[in-house]
Design brief:
single chain, 68 residues, alpha+beta, 1 helix, binds zinc ion
Length: 68
């Protein structure tokens, strides 16, 4: 377990914060509630894709697959 953040200035980090937006539609996500997250390994970093609901996740997934 890595505990790299504590109470203090929020100057960025791997945690999901209140500025989280839906990757598909851009809506603000209420992070106090459950929401879908897709993680993708891109070379040496992990990319988080967050979605407001399963519909946006489905749309984004199908769009993403048709591109490649
Ligand atoms: Zn959305």
């Amino acid at each position: 377990m890595v505990e790299s953040y504590r109470n203090g200035p929020d100057d960025g980090g791997p945690k999901v914060d209140t500025s989280t937006r839906c990757t598909n539609c851009g809506s603000h996500i209420d992070t106090s509630q459950w929401f879908p997250i897709v993680t993708e390994l891109e070379e040496e970093s992990v990319i988080l894709y967050t979605f407001c609901d399963d519909d946006c996740l489905d749309q984004w997934t199908s769009m993403n697959q048709s591109e490649s």
